[in-house]
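Reference record:
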Amino acid sequence: MAASLNLNRLAYFSAVADAGSFTRAAGQLGMTKAVVSQQVSRLEQELGVTLLTRTTRKVSLTEAGGTLHARCAVIMRESAAAFDELAEGSAEPKGTLRVAASFDYGSSVVAAVAADFTRHFPRCAVELSLSDRLVDLQAVDLTIRIGQLPDSTHQVRRIGTMEQLLVGGAALAAQVARLRGPEELAPLPFVANGALPEPNLWRFSHARRGRRAVRLSSKLRVDATPAAHAAVLAGAGISVLPDYLVESDLEAGRLVRVLPEWRLRSGGIHVLLPSARFRPQKVARFVELIVRAEAARRRHA
């Protein structure tokens, strides 16, 4: 069956499924409704299944049609990317690049890379979406995620690592310098980040003294990492924050490390790309820049 399947009919079917109407699909394709209907009917005959439920008022996907339409979306996207890649050749990247990232890493690192990207490639624009919620990868060109990743069929590239650091405001420097272990943290005011799964429970490890788990009582609870960062800078207490967010504050003395010999869990920094065989140059060039920026950050740290 695969050998006799007319792949052009997938485009007709996908257009009807997207438009929800043979008439609208025909208009978009620049063909008559009769031709589009005939091509979809022949596709159904070749496959031996009903793909669309037709009524006088609307067209809807059957279960088999929904499965095929999801596959068609990937095929169409890869085809468009392939044509873009061939058309671009060695030319300068162009077009709009859609990037998603977590709010804190996006603000600290990715925004600067996006600015650098638009300077390097003036024919490109960037739409940067920052959110701690998971983003549908089919809606963007790439996304950057921190920490552990769920199983995924998407393409993943690890570009770096992040460390979680226990930090406090400079006013606490003398007090935290006397601490000998995590069990002595309880009296200090703690800012909890409610965006984390266990914002008050922290597991420390030490090269010689082993592991400790402590549950801290929070004086202040926020729901976003940048808010925890701002609260600590304002003197609210201590908190656990990612290294990329506090590096400049530690260097400038606005924040201090608390129990620097005790380590917290680290995590990976990943670029996720929707499953596709071909990548436009704008995607490849942006990934190169973010990899370079992350490498420079690690060297500086």
Summary: The first strand starts at residue 52 and ends at 54.
